[in-house]
Description:
The chain has three domains: 2-129, no CATH class; 203-413, 2-Layer Sandwich (Heat Shock Protein 90), CATH 3.30.565; 484-567, Beta-lactamase Inhibitory Protein, Chain:B, domain 1, CATH 3.30.1450. It is built from 16 helices and nine strands. The protein has helices at residues 2-15, 22-45, 51-64, 69-82, 87-100, 104-126, 132-216, 223-254, 279-288, 306-326, 372-382, 415-434, 451-483, 488-493, 500-506, 512-515, and strands at residues 293-298, 332-338, 342-349, 386-391, 397-404, 485-486, 530-536, 545-554, 557-567. The longest helix has 85 residues, at 132-216. It starts with a helix and ends with a strand. The model is unreliable at 256-272, 355-367 and 410-446 (pLDDT under 50).
Amino acid sequence: MDALAKAWSKAVRAAFPGPWRPGLVVRELGGxxxxxxxxxxxxxAEHSGLCLVSGPAVALLFLLRRGLPGTVxxxxxxxxxxxxxxxxxxxxxxxxxGARVKRVAVLAGSFTGGFLLMTxxxxxxxxxxxxxxxxxxxxxxxxxxxxVLPALWGRYRAQRRALLDALRDRNDQLLRERxxxxxxxxxxxxxxxxxxxxxxxxxxxxxISVHSGALEVDRTLTDRQREAVGVLRLAAVSAMRELREVVxxxxxxxxxxPSVPGAGAGxxxxxHRGGVEGVGKLVESSxxxxxxxxxxEDGERRPLAANVGHAAYRIVQExxxxxxxxxxxxxxxxxxxxxxxxxxxxxxxxxxAEPVGVPAGGxxxxxxxxxxxxxxxxxxxxxxGMVHAGPTPEAGFRLAAVLxxxxxxxxxxxxxxxxxxxxxxxxxEEWLLDGLPxxxxxxxxxxxxxxxxxxAIGGGVVLLTVLGLLxxxxxxxxxxxxxxxxxxxxxxxxxxxxxxxxxxxxxxxGNGFFTQxxxxxxxxxxxxxxxxxxxxxxxxxxxxxxxxDRFCFKDGVLVEKLHFVAKS
Length: 568
């Protein structure tokens, strides 16, 4: 029982798919009621014996068309071939099938099957009353107009609605991506500013701390002067601590989202205030602080990309700052080596004379935010290089960086790349919404195709086919009407008593489509005779009346010819 109940529930959901909102319920019930009344009226006008059944059946099929569009189309077409009552429903069934059946093969099969069944039922019902070709032509023309044309319009509306929904979703996605890219660009710029603050201000504060530490142990200073220098050194240390706290917060926020490819320190506008030419000034500043610093350049100097030179400058600056903080008083060796494929930057120092972390003359421990080496590795990565830092066998410290001459970035990196990404997103949005060429700008980029083109072509084919069938029908109708009409001259030339074979040879073949309503009308036929009815070539000016010619045969001889007026 449970399986049967589940199957029944599944079948009901498939036949009447939801959600059934109040407005939809009212619209569907109103449409079913209207079509049911129309079907009943058409059945009454047609003198059909199914007047009581036609209305409910059509209403039920109308409600089922949303869940079973193909099945309802085939059933409605079959019933339409037998009676005219379901004809209004065939329009709605064609619309629903065109709009709701997604697979082209299923849609084509449904319409083909509906046409064949409608034609078959129509031929079975009216066999012998009209030529078969005429019946098929009328069935095809009516089916194309009543079922196929609404289906094309419904499919166009459905495809247009689906395309607009897809474009709206794509537009919303592009807007979200634009906001995300802009947010990442701001975070990357914030990270760059934080890194520059750390490298430049941290270096200068470290030099201030080293200078003040050296003055604090100078014996020529008085106690008051030494106290003032100590306050200066503590202020520099406190400033370094606060700077690193701020830089740490900015760095953590900047790396919260995935990095944007191409955004790096080498971007235009990133503030390239120093290159390899500024390394000598850094060395002189460190020497002025009382530290022994050696500087050497090996190899033939080569032109460097701007971002590579700036990265080399920042690496030397950070390495000197770390040496001043963690190995005060120790000599420092700075070297730039121009290798065949890359620039090697090396900064090394031996073990400090005093314990690491304690400044000259004692006092507050050295401040270290832990951001320096991380920033250096990031700088080197952005230009396609690498950084190695670690202790030496002599208990000192060595930092070495390998930077390619050209760099991995380009002039389009960084904020400019962000702007390019935003422009690309905007271009893609315009391409989707306005049908412009794609953002790649390639010649012959595909344009958006409107569903109206295919549906318009299909509608044109249907209309041309219907017009062709109409022209063919008019010609066939005239020809068939001639076959059922006896000219007045022929009627006068035929005499009673002529052999039946001779008379039938001279008469047109006739057609029951035009004369079946006249059989049995007129004066009484001669006893034992068989009669043939034809339209008369005489014109009749009275509405609702037709001139009819009757030829009656008995024993192979024409026994009567009669011309009379019959009600049409």
